[in-house]
Amino acid sequence: MRPGKWCGLAAVIALTATACGSGGGTRATGADGGPPGRDGFPVRVADCKGVETTFTAPPRKIVTSNAAALEMLLRLGAGDRVIGTGFPPGRGTLPGGLGARAAKVPVLGKAVIPKEKLLGSGADLYIDTFAAMGGVGGMGGMGGAGDAPTDEEFKAAGIRHVYLASTACAPMAKGPQRDLSGVEGDLTRLGAVTGTAPRARELVAGMRAKVAAVHKAVADVPEAERPRYFFFDFDAGTKQPMAVCGKQVANAVITQAGARNVFGDCDGDFTPVSWEDVVAKNPDWIQLAVRDRGDAAANAKAFDQAAQFLTSFPATKGLAAVRNERFLRIGSEPTTIAGTRNADTVEEIAHTLYPARFKGGR
């Protein structure tokens, strides 16, 4: 499962966030078009297509389409209002108490939530991570996986429907996702909608501080001299590699860390490529992006297996990055799932690629 599907734009109340460096967007304002009232409500949210939804009070029963939206709500302190999710986070994916709280959320679908179950869930808000396509619910962006409710069906069920702009608006974006402003905008917008705006501001400030420190450290490195970086999605299979493209949040993470995604010029989020393509890109560093197995020993074993494949596979064993073991053992989820941990991954990548520029390391 690849929970972060596309990038987009988000602007919430006083915060304007631009992902992908292109047009389109979402916003939240007071119901009259001005700023919200003293308690933050009413709030009017416009999605990627400009369709507006008004909240006169915080939602009380929320369903999330996948782990990205669920994690954001947990970090905002609104997790107790989540009554169900699709694509639940795997065991060990979320750290500590966050993972324990996520495990208590009812799973309405191990993948896309079935239409009937979603409409009959009793939710008053559905947060959608997938692309809005064809005038129907965002699950149409899952390549036909599931029968998505229409806007009219959501309305009849009393469910307001909003999108995570950092993952759902790429069909309207004109370029790649290069920064984390889309993620920041989603956190701020969800904070406004759920009445947790102060916590959202804290989370966004924390992300910005981490990324700003990286920017300061690598600012003088010319673009052409920044390391070429390959995200090796080991769990997607080794027969044909799956590349991270420009409209996936991982492209923003890699870019903000001071590296160049070797497949950042492909359109969309993920695309299958050939090993010949990877060799031709000649990456300087390779991220061994395995998915969390649930414990440290199992994760270490998976990283070892990914490295062993690259060092033994005829097409890749001759690459300088492989011969010199320039591998980053960083999990897939904090790189590809939109959320606060994207900033942590920016830090981790930058400290690995530029150790001399960070005093005392991480």
Structure description:
The chain is α/β, with parallel strands linked by helices. It has a domain at 220-357: Nitrogenase molybdenum iron protein domain (Rossmann fold, 3-Layer(aba) Sandwich). The protein contains 13 helices and 16 strands. It has helices at 67-76, 96-103, 115-119, 151-156, 165-168, 181-194, 197-218, 249-256, 275-281, 296-312, 320-323, 333-336, 341-353, and strands at residues 10-12, 15-17, 27-29, 43-46, 52-55, 62-64, 82-86, 107-109, 125-128, 160-163, 228-233, 242-244, 260-261, 270-272, 285-289, 327-328. The strands form 5 sheets. Strands 8-7-6-9-10 form a 5-stranded parallel beta sheet. A 4-stranded parallel beta sheet has the order 13-11-15-16. Strands 3-4-5 form a 3-stranded antiparallel beta sheet, covered by helices on one side. Helix 4 links the parallel strand 9 (125-128) and strand 10. It is globular and about 60 Å long. Mean pLDDT is 86; it is low at 1-26, 30-34 and 133-145.
What is the 3D form? globular
Biggest sheet, spatial arrangement of strands? 8-7-6-9-10
* Contiguous uncertain segments of 5+ residues: 1-26, 30-34, 133-145
Name of the top-level CATH class of the domain at 220-357: Alpha Beta
Cα end-to-end separation: 30 Å
